Amino acid sequence: MFYKPEDGHGLPHNPFNSIVTPRPIGWISTRGADGRDNLAPYSFFNAVAYVPPQVMFSSTSAKEDRGDTKDSVANIRETGVFCVNIVEYEMRDAMNKTSGPWDRATDEFELATLAKAECDTIACSRVAAAPANLECKRTQIVQLPGEANFAVFGEVIGVHMRDDCMVDGMFDVLRYNPLTRLGYQDYSVIREKFSLKRPGE
Length: 201
Description:
Elements: H1 16-19, E1 23-24, E2 26-31, E3 37-42, E4 45-49, E5 54-59, H2 71-79, E6 81-86, H3 92-97, H4 108-111, E7 116-118, E8 125-127, E9 132-143, E10 150-161, E11 166-167, E12 170-171, E13 179-181, E14 187-189
Antiparallel strand pairs: 1-13, 2-3, 2-6, 4-5, 5-10, 6-9, 7-8, 9-10, 11-12, 13-14
């Protein structure tokens, strides 16, 4: 089939998220100017540059108590920093719990019974047991076409890697099995990998 998004797809559910898959999940922790911690997952997330290392995530909806956006973007506007916590399969239920439309006073770390650790380079909490954490300073927030669509870009200025995920000096994703987002209510998990050399390598 073919459809133009502006005309609608005529299907029971939007297929877009099922086409662009799998997507890594950025479990974004922030702290507001009021000192409250927030934790929420975003599957519009990825690394975007090596030098300096940079990441991005997009928020695509809003909450009544945050005006034109959600807690994560609102907090980053206030403080200029955030942390990306990598989600492993074993943390799937905790991650899912933090995805709810909780009010701004809710601390999702406490809600999901997740231990916090303080970041080293920024004033923000991180998921202590996550396989890796990327401490970021905001570089820009871009308003995208459409209501409540914001892309947040950040430079990674601190990296935590869990010791049990290191094998022969390399960060091994099979030691923790990354959780990935598919479409609808579906997820997947990375349990195998293979290598390919680029031409000329």
